[in-house]
Amino acid sequence: MSVSDPIADMICIIKNGINARKLDVKIPYSNIKFDIVNIMHKEGFISKVEKIDNDNKPIIKVALKYNEVGKSVINNMVKQSTPGKRQYFAKADIPKVKNGFGISILSTNKGVISGKEARMKNVGGEILCYVW
């Protein structure tokens, strides 16, 4: 089955896994999705990311992260740019998410990076999603 927006599908899989209190979720592999979850891992929103083979089809296994009380570290994820409405921001206009408590993930000419890293590298790009 083809998916018209694979990043939105990935966000939905992660949010459903959090709502079901799963320890990990499996996402169909693509390079951009793998880069997004690696940024989330680097920023501390998920505990582990690995690429595994499942019957010769690669998938991404994402271990979700919960605090001591059992509440998820990820409060929400929002897909910002859609296939019908791309949203591009210049380096000076990259928004801060929840006053710095969240992250924005951008697709730039330097690759898929976080908003904080984009500000440091002085590049703009397409905002893919927000995580807080």
Outline the fold blueprint.
Blueprint lengths: L5 H14 L4 E5 L2 H12 L3 E9 L2 E8 L12 E3 L8 E2 L13 E6 L2 E4 H7 L3 E7 L1
Antiparallel strand pairs: 1-3, 2-3, 4-8, 5-8, 6-7, 6-8
Task: Report on this structure.
By secondary structure, this protein is of the alpha+beta class. It has a single domain (6-131), classed as Dna Ligase, domain 1. Helices cover 25% and strands 33% of the residues. It is built from three helices and eight strands; from the N terminus they run H-E-H-E-E-E-E-E-E-H-E. The protein has helices at 6-19, 31-42, 115-121; strands at 24-28, 46-54, 57-64, 77-79, 88-89, 103-108, 111-114, 125-131. Strands 4, 5, 6, 7 and 8 form a five-stranded antiparallel sheet that branches. The protein is globular and about 40 Å long. The protein starts with 5 loop residues before the first helix and ends with a strand. The mean pLDDT is 95.
